[in-house]
């Protein structure tokens, strides 16, 4: 199975690029951000907890997000593969993902890390906020999300670099050009196989 992790700071384009990767490689999409927002929309107890973190720009606690992901894996750990959009975001989540996939005799194939400078990230998220009405797309919360990214999520790059799975992708430019770089990195996996 092809199991892709799409990694990057908030607003780096994970959601945008995952749509294109799904289409090209016929992958199942697992976005923990979207799963949390779904719980919020449905007004569940879990959604209320998630909302209290997301609206402040904090990460939702590991046990909640790992539980959501485990449910998804039970439902859709099937060929041809999966795309993890925004998961893992902490080292604890990264280790949990390896263990969960091992239960299905699976592993992470590649980690595509979208590299975008901070000014560009802030501009993109402010612009999205004007249209999306998302509670986390305002300046104060964006700054908190970026701090959390550097502190808790960025160390995952070293984790995956040590596993030889990290590919850094220039995330500034046209959506199509960025996608082409990603697809070329993924296609290399088939050449090596
Ligand atoms: P997510 O839903 O994952 O979203 P995101 O990081 O904000 O954005 P993404 O990178 O997907 O950007 P997008 O493509 O939309 O997370 C939301 C929150 O949920 C987190 O802050 C956290 O609280 C919680 N959460 C999620 N997963 C979690 C986990 N594993 N553990 C704990 N908590 C978790 O792009 C942004 C904007 O840029 C869009 O408007 C897009 O149109 C634009 N854009 C994209 N590519 C562009 C390009 N090349 N040029 C110009 N603009 C571009």
Task: Walk me through the structure.
It is a single chain. The termini are close together. The protein has nine helices and five strands; from the N terminus they run βαβαααβαβαααβα. Helix 2 packs across helix 3 and helix 4 runs parallel beside helix 5. It has 193 residues and is an alpha/beta fold. It is globular. It has a five-stranded parallel sheet with strand order 2-3-1-4-5, with helices on both faces. The mean pLDDT is 94. Bound molecules: BIS(adenosine)-5'-tetraphosphate. BIS(adenosine)-5'-tetraphosphate (B4P) binds next to helix 1, helix 2, helix 3, helix 6 and helix 9.
Mean pLDDT: 94
What is the helix content? 55-70%
The count of DSSP E runs of length 2 or more, i.e. the number of strands, is: 5
Q: How many strands, what sense, and barrel or not for the largest sheet?
A: 5 strands, parallel
- Give the names of the bound compounds: BIS(adenosine)-5'-tetraphosphate
**Element-by-element helix/strand order:** EHEHHHEHEHHHEH
Question: Helix- and strand-based class?
Answer: alpha/beta
């Amino acid at each position: 199975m092809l199991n892709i992790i799409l990694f990057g700071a908030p607003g780096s384009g994970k959601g945008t690029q995952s749509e294109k990767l799904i289409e090209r490689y016929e992958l199942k999409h697992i976005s923990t951000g979207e799963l949390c927002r779904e719980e919020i929309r449905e007004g569940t107890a879990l959604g209320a907890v998630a909302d209290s973190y997301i609206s402040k720009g904090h990460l939702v606690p590991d046990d909640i997000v790992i539980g959501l992901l485990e449910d998804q894996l039970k439902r859709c750990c099937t060929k041809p593969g999966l795309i993890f959009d925004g998961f893992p975001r902490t080292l604890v989540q990264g280790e949990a993902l390896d263990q969960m996939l091992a239960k299905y005799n699976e592993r992470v194939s590649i980690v595509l890390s979208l590299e975008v400078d901070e000014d560009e990230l802030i501009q993109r998220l402010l612009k999205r906020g004007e249209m999306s009405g998302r509670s986390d797309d305002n300046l104060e919360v964006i700054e908190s999300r970026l701090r959390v990214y550097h502190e808790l999520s960025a160390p995952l790059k070293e984790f995956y670099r040590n596993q030889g799975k990290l590919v850094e992708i220039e995330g500034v430019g046209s959506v199509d050009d960025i996608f082409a770089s990603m697809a070329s990195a993924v296609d290399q996996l088939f050449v090596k196989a």
